[in-house]
Protein: HTH arsR-type domain-containing protein
Amino acid sequence: MSKVLKNDHTEETLFEVAEFFKVLGDPTRIKIVSALFENGELCVNDIVNLVDVTRTAVSHQLRILKDKRIISYRKEGQMKFYHLDDAHVEVIVLLTITHLSHH
Amino acid sequence: MSKVLKNDHTEETLFEVAEFFKVLGDPTRIKIVSALFENGELCVNDIVNLVDVTRTAVSHQLRILKDKRIISYRKEGQMKFYHLDDAHVEVIVLLTITHLSHH
DNA sequence: TTAATAAGTGAGCAAGTGTTCACATATTAA
DNA sequence: TTAATATGTGAACACTTGCTCACTTATTAA
Structure:
């Protein structure tokens, strides 16, 4: 008599969850995301200063975050102000920080 | 007059957050984690059947999850029963699934 | 128009990752 | 002891990833 195994979440759902975590699973990108929810909105130059990597590297990571719909921007003159696309991301990251602090 | 930029979370904290997300950011590992919180406890063979990758691949990923303190096991005879090490992980994953379902 | 500022792109490359293959260990049954 | 079952390990390899370098685009100022 073998127990029936539960398998409620679809392959596709779990793949999307993995994709989401993978995007947040990089030091540069999580620093950018953290800087954005702490400051609300930042131009690329401010992000570069806070995150301490090169302009080019920041640009590449901003593109990835934008493609995955985690951030968006508002254009003002020649500057772009980036912000989080969805408040849930902040909740998930803060919950994780709390979880890890009880390590 | 430039605004002061907030930078409250330490480099180290954010690095650990990235590490945590990186571990969950793989399809095989997130499937294992999901299978474990759905079923409470599973032996390797059951995990292999639920997750649909080879025994060897599952073993390697179980080791990574164990090293990162996301899972533990209980030994019974020649079998090992794996389970989540901390309920917070389930909360974070479920919250993420909810977040993505409102995509 | 020309120069300066803000931001982005694409190729190249070193480093990292997940799987497979062959082999190893541990426990139980014959 | 021998065989069978359950699980783990390490090297090899293809694939992915994040950075840097050189160059480009867009906007504003001179």
